[in-house]
Amino acid sequence: MSPLVIKNISIGLLLNLLFAARLFSQESVPDNIRLMFYNTENLFDTFDDTLKDDDDFLPGGIMRWNLKRYNSKISALYKTIIAAGGWKPPAVVAMCEIENRSVLEDLVHGTFLMKFDYGIIHGDSPDPRGIDVCMIYDRSLVSLIDYCYWMPGTESDTEFSSRSILYARLLINCDTLHLIANHWPSRRGGVLAGEGTRMKLARLIMAKVDSINMLSRLPAKIIITGDFNCTPDDQEVAPFTDSAEKRSMFVNLSAKPAGRGEGTYRYMGTWEMIDQLFISESLLERSSGLFTDETKLKVFNSDFLLRRDPVYPGFSPFPTYRGYKYQGGFSDHLPVLLDLGFN
User: Fold this and answer.
1) Are residues 100 and 224 in the same domain?
2) Of 44, 67, 254, 263, which is least surrounded by CB within 10 A?
3) Residues 218-237 pLDDT 10s
């Protein structure tokens, strides 16, 4: 081989090494990746969908929902997401109570979020009102490997009419993260209302988690989040932390803040931690890839998301509606945030 050829090969190899070093340098890896979950409180558009029970949120409906109120709601959600990231919005935002993909398009393309190249994950659920679980993600930081929606699938569950569960497999800084987002049936009508369905959804998730772990070469890094309509002490979420299988164990990061009296939703003057976040124990390992710890969870409770409660002492989330009365606020829930580091 001639010296010229050797020289050209050496230069090419050097350029490749310099490119790789730049690609994987610390400058290209953010200090942390922030995740957010937010119950948006009925983000409906103003158009009638004949396949959904959305009549209340139409201009002629009982909520008197119109374009002005809709635009204000989109703006409020945009402001919350931006503020939650400290002017660099979270890399992943999972949400619930979203009517359709169109409202997400308005959010990510019709506000200043357009500067951050968010991708959208949305699928219609069997919920009669048409409210769904969805996700947006910053494509400069997060790659979507695949996603799907889960719901009970046995013959006895053919009448399932709640929100389906969103599962997304993400690639972040060359590490795989499995994200499972939920919006379980409410307890409206009493604590026991919807309990059977909530337990069924918990068992479904654990079965899927077992499958994920069995197919993973390394311990899978999994986050389960959402509005569970129950607290960390309720039996419905116990399967996540009480599993006999060590590979299925999770840590409920929301339990300690709940024990301190923090919450994401205020009911009759009492804070309840019904928007929760569970992590697999593998995310507590700092040896390589993504990691976090129990100090990295935060209920985002900035002053602008709160207002003085008109009935009970103290402050509550500033809602869009209180009953049927328009308030012009953000949501009746507060978001939860989690920071992930990377080694």
Assistant:
1) yes
2) 67
3) 889 999 999 999 999 999 99
